[in-house]
Amino acid sequence: MTTLPEPDGELAEIFRRLIRNTGPISLVQFMGESNARYYATRDPLGGAGDFVTAPEISQMFGELIGLWLADMWINSGREEPVSYVELGPGRGTLAKDALRAMKRYGLEPAVHFVETSRTLREVQLAAVPQAQWHDDVSTLPWDDPLLVVANEFFDALPVRQLVRTEEGWRERMIALDGDDFVFVAGKQPMDAAMPAGAGDLPPGSIVETCPAAAAVAYELFHRLAEQGGCALVFDYGAQRPDAGSTLQAVRAHRKVDPFETPGSADLTAHVDFGTLANIAESRGLRNLGTVGQGDWLRALGVEARAQALAKAAPHYAEDIDAAMHRLIDADQMGRLFKAMGVAHAAWPGGAGFAQPS
Ligand code: SAH
Fold this sequence. Notes:
By secondary structure, the chain is of the alpha/beta class. The chain has eleven helices and 16 strands. Helix 4 packs across helix 5, helix 7 runs parallel beside helix 8 and helix 10 packs antiparallel against helix 11. Bound molecules: S-adenosyl-L-homocysteine. S-adenosyl-L-homocysteine binds next to helix 2 and helix 3.
């Protein structure tokens, strides 16, 4: 994906010029270019930024992930060397917390970050100085088992939307009405590109797919099948997504119009966990399951961990309790956020995936 060098506000103008010169552009291009610009030009995480993620809410999130990975590694025979891989590590907070927890169990993996933003790489370097960086998963080490984590990574990858018109399925494209971006149906018939079963939906229906997420999962899960290892994916999404657009833009903790300021708001879409699980199974991996983030954290002992932290730091007891509830409560991040686990067929089943989502 190209990252364009111009400052904020310029990207909208670039898109307008492109559309005027060559016609409507795809949502994949709009979202891909917008997010590349967005992440390249800022650290969006935290109270002063645009959104807050689980590892920035509490150290318990990364610690329990580290514990889970250490448990998997120990039960699979403590193979070494082994690599910790994180996709889109943000500020490096999750990795730092997870690595500290893993070390207590004798697990000190090499650290590999897949991160395209040069700005965030600087922040990650300060948190995890020993890390090595990659633009994509293709350059990850080939020999080691991989312990993979992705939190709010897949939701940032560009989605393609198809819309049912009276004439059949078309790609949803972005055109101009004056200076405003508007959705239009593309000219090319897309009926042959539809997932099975989607043909019956009424006119106006939208089906969303994420080719970029599928491509990353395909390559990564192939590596896990070849090299050993396991992966934990956390994101907002569903096991079997309903039809409809889930595209949203967030800026300064508020939902905004995705067309308003491309490159200055975080564009996301829900993650299709069912498709990721199918890809894992097609590569020969074991699908451990997809459960609510709250159920997963509770099964891993988040309540006991919160109590221990509160006992060690009584002044912060209320903050620790509030952070835990933010992560696990059904009306906060506990239910809409999902945890998905996959592992090499010869690796053990992981803790926390027994409950239904
Ligand atoms: N995991 C972190 C950050 C989530 S934000 C946390 O939980 O706090 C999304 C992260 O993915 C950022 O680090 C962003 O720079 C990175 N990212 C987005 N698109 C990417 C891409 N195509 N390739 C690699 N990294 C990407």
